[in-house]
Amino acid sequence: MGEESGERMSDTTGGGILRGRGLFVLTIFTGSFLLFLVQPMVARMALPKLGGAPAVWNSAMLVYQALLLAGYAYAHWLSREAPKRQAGVHLALLLIAALWLPIGLASFAIPSDGSPIFWVPWLLLASIGPLFFAVAAQAPLMQRWFGLAGNAGEPYALYAASNLGSFGGLIAYPLLVEPNLPTTAQTWMWSGLYAALFLLVLVCARAIWAGRNAEASADAAAESAAPITWRQRLYWIALSAVPSGLMLSTTSHLTTDLMAMPLIWVIPLGLYLLSFSVAFADNRFLANVISQIAPAVLILGGASVFMIWGKAAYAGLGVSIGLLFVIAVALHAEMYRTRPDASRLTEFYLMMSVGGVIGGFFCAIVAPLLFNWTWEHPILLVAAALLLPQLRLFSLGEEDTFGKSGWTAATLILALFALGIGYYLGSDISLDGTHTHTALVAIILITGLIVTGRRIAFALVLIAAMIGNGGWANVELSADGSRVRSYFGTYTINQTSDGSVRWLSHGTTMHGMQLLDNPTLPISYYGANSGVGIASRRAEELFGPKATIGVVGLGTGTLACYKKPGQDWHFFEIDPLMVEIARERKIFSFLEKCAPDTQMHLGDARLTLAEQPAGTFDLLAIDAFSSDSIPLHLLTKEAFAVYRRALKPDGILLVHISNRYIDLNPVVAAEATAGNWSAALRLDSPPQAVVNQGMRPSQWIAMSPDAGKLAQLTGMVYDRRPAYYYPDRWIKLKPPRADDRWTDDYASVLPYVSFWKIIR
């Protein structure tokens, strides 16, 4: 063994280190790192040009998935060629793709009347298609080359390195790259890493060029390997599709029903990527343990899908992401267990990619069209129950006692009994929270453990647990029309038991409220003492009886009830469903009663405002930041240039910055300083008695190029001392730092997140 090792180390034509496992691990890691770095990078670059419409990002996501699938298909095709030819073709492809460096958006005209579904894919394909395609092939192709280079060991284990690289790129962009580098520097950094990747692939290519008898060995392995059946292919596709979809549905579930915490989307995606590293690792201990406990975790965690966690939201977060990780590891470990011979490795990964595309397409495109809530989440959990490898906890003596078919029938009867209990619990809300409810839920869960190993029975018990623990109430809520959904998320129309108050919530964020016995009174964040309320009430005094007023963000249409005769109001709304709720279905009657002739402009606000004639508005309110998801492109230097152009020279801009986790004051203050805007902040802090009537605290910043006009609105502007806030007064903004100003080239929300508020 020592002589063999010495021979390899002395081989200068491609052995030793050049054939080492570390080389291929580093190459695979680098390629996957680049893939997950370029996706958010290009999205960030495209935001100002394309806007934030969901059709744009759904199209972009499908482009990425399609390119990944194409890269895996290319790797599978290329693996059939002679090893030396594989190396030559792939190096040539990497060189051709380098013509698209540095990364940037293709410069062709965007049709104003074209659907993003059709032209966004072409824009992205023209911008990064060849680069993404070439890099996407790295993981399966380098694993194939690992064996061709004469390395001993399991090439599938190298896929763990691929997903660690993906996880690294995913974390690096929001935490390190975006906060510290403008997009131009980001593209050059990516180009440098791409050059390093090319050199690594070149070294790998030399290893297979120098590999002795590599081609003959590859042909012999392929001939001796068992053929792959279509049943195996479909099984791999299913095992891949469920975790892929579950990752997206968990993200939607968390942001819809638990919290819209900043960067929360990173958690499910990161755990999904790490699940591959565990499932494909050389050491099988952790993957085996997780696979064995997966059914119990699924039945316990799945029962909580419909729970309202309230103040225990972090417990719900832990349950949801833990459930995702365990299921993803178990299903991916089953893929690993059923993997084919290494000579057929690329086809295995191709099927995995097909499954990933199917799961993503189901959640991103199909589910929002079919469902009015995130029903794809429990559906995928049930699909996982049907796919999970399950240890039969109660199998001793079953053949002698019942016979195989008899025991299967017995478990189905138990499952149907549990299903009956679940329906009883779900339909009788008087039991909710009682000891009887808890005891019956426990019976369902115990039944789930008993039938573990019988997949159909297990799935039925899981459905029973969901129905009995809030699922049936959610079915009724979806059936009665209280929920509506678009690509932007799920909206719930809530109403008090006495029918006096109705409000709209987008996930965990309230987006407007109406008192049905006083339907024209603006409340919630838009009360008479809020910044926007004061400006709207005094618009006639400030700008005359024919003032032109624009509002970015429709919500329930509350601000429309400040409209006075003679005024010209315009609403800019990105989501057609909001227009339907506020105007067409008249669920909220602010528009109908106060401003039925208001003009509505659909589309991303920055793009639609840019289409307005210069100097159109006396007053412009930007109400797009009250939720916990911040559209960065609406707060950049270039965005404020759009607002300034749309305003008259003495116009007033109002920016709503109320937020649970993010302090946007320094960002707006930096723009006010750099752009010579006069600015003041008003914190409306209504007393509890008024809060009980529907008012909510709010923060609005008023800005104007005309200092005198702003002074007419605000009167005296107070310093920010001795207290941090002066409730119900106009106060000065926080002094900005040098790097607080956002631009289309540089913006990051991370420095403005209050992590203390998140963990509190």
The profile of the biggest β sheet is: 8 strands, mixed
Question: How much of the residues is beta strand, in percent?
Answer: 5-15%
Biggest sheet strand order reads 7-6-5-8-9-11-10-12
Radius of gyration: 29 Å
User: Total helix count?
Assistant: 29
What overall form do the CA principal axes indicate?
Answer: globular
Strand count: 12
The unreliable regions are 1-18, 396-403
Mean pLDDT: 83
Q: Give the % helix.
A: 55-70%
Between the first and last Cα atoms, what is the distance in angstroms? 59 Å
Assign the structural class, choosing from mainly alpha, mainly beta, alpha/beta, alpha+beta, or little secondary structure: alpha/beta
Description:
With 760 residues, this protein is of the alpha/beta class. Helices cover 57% and strands 9% of the residues. It contains 29 helices and twelve strands. Strands 7-6-5-8-9-11-10-12 form an eight-stranded mixed β-sheet, sandwiched between helices. The chain has a four-stranded antiparallel β-sheet with strand order 1-2-3-4. β8, α25 and β9 form a beta-alpha-beta unit. α4 runs antiparallel to α8, α12 crosses α19 and α15 runs antiparallel to α19. It is globular. The N and C termini lie far apart (59 Å). The N terminus is likely disordered.
